[in-house]
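Researcher: Quick one. two chains, 570 residues in total.
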Amino acid sequence: MNSAVFQAATLSGRAKKAETAMPLARSKGRLRQIRRIAAREFGDRLRSGWVIACVPVWLGAIGLTSFLGLLQIGRIGVQGYERTVVSLLNLVQYLVPLLGLLLGHDLIVAERENGTLRLLLASGVTRLRLLLGKLLGGWLTLTVPLVLGFAIAGTVIGLTARDGGVGPFVKLAISALALGLVFVVVGLALSAFTKTRVQALVTALLVWCVAVFAFDLVALGIMVSTQSAEAAAEIELICDTTHVNAAAADLHAAYESGGVEPAERDMSDPAAPAWLALNPVSLFRAVNLPSQTGVRVPAPTLGMALSAWLVIPLWLASWRTRQTDF
Amino acid sequence: MNTLLHISNLTKRYGAVSALEQISIAIERASVLAVLGPNGAGKSTLFGCLLGLTLLSGGEIRFASTPARDRDRTSIGYLPERVSLYPHRTVWENAVFFAGLKGYPPEAIRFQLERVGLGRVHHRKARELSKGMLQRLGLAIALCGAPELLILDEPFNGLDPAVLDRLQAILREEHERGATLLISTHTISAVEPLATHALILLNGSPAAFGPVDALRAEYRHSATLEELYQHVARAHAHNAEVLA
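Model:
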């Protein structure tokens, strides 16, 4: 018997002992695979520096926005929560969808390109569990720095500005997490439909451009040409990206003059238009606009839109992976 | 009934190209099936279908009495032809991750790493491993949890003689334990001492299938599996010429 065979033979006794104990060690929970895939995904991003790098980015972005947000009206200094939200809206609506898509676009296609997807699926992981694990891992990667950024910067703002009205700021943070989740799901779906990482990245950037720029411009054009002047004014306030800075400046000016909204922004109908549900970025913006603007998104509309934006891309990704040879 | 796998009329087409055509075989429990054939014969596609990685164009696969789609595949060990793992993670981390997906604790994979001779390099990154070492790591992952079915796609590729010996010994142990082994290979001499059954695939169809002894008796001039394979391939080519 040569040494190799000898080693295998001597190990067999221990191996048998371990393997007879195996069935007892099996976890019964079906969430086990989802949890493990999510933990690996998050761990890999943590090691790559993604998470660590995002924390100071968010801290800096929120802090600077709070400190310099009044430049438009010729002032600097830390603002209270509500006014920081007005200044932050612009940044969050651009950055969070972009980060969500950047995190989501390669969740599946990268595993496929690296050749690890076959081994993953051959390990008894169903396609749906793979998607859910990847989604959870991707979302955690976005959520951890975002929560840290909001929590630390929020505390500093509260202490510095001596502001106790943290509600709008918390609402912004929670809706930003939801917005991030939606775009990670959309990225995941793109990842399931594309064959290479480059293809996925290009598609993701196109989706981002549509969500944050093109949708608003097209919607504005349609509304102005077909709806009443009142509706056009409403959409201008909510989504005209080319006027967001001006809108923020108007709102800050209104705060300075006693919190009264400029007359042309006054909404006679408090309900936000239904088309907002078609674009999560517009919905996010409408949810976080100050109460003085009169824009209010009914909870059922918000719930249904959010559910649809989570379920439909996930279902599409699941359908696609079930139709694909790996 | 001692059959582990029932494959009936299995067909896989990629557009107009037929990768597998009407394969109907039954694989006995605790057998070692050598799946032989030239490149593109459909060996990896067959394995992909068994593992649920490749969608069937037609036919059915049943594990004992359970349709393959309803089968929990955590009791199947799979070694792909090209072992791809997470390169920036260590041997240990990769092994624990895949073992964990199947529900096994780290102790389970520790035995297998030692068994394949990687116990001392568990801290090395996967990207630092040679092809042979990666192959062994893939094998350790496949062996974790004493699977009842082991599907090994070209397991002998790129192994030096000492490692080949060790691998054969491990596979023999797995067979003695009662596992069913499906091994595709071009290194027919390596699978020869292990194989109890053989499936020769040519152009996506089974040209020969059965116990090795019965096939040897059928093809009288075949002393070895290699000769048997050559014999079947020549006969198949001759029949194709006649039909043409």
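Chain B touches chain A through 48 residues (CB under 8 Å).
Researcher: Thanks, that's what I needed.
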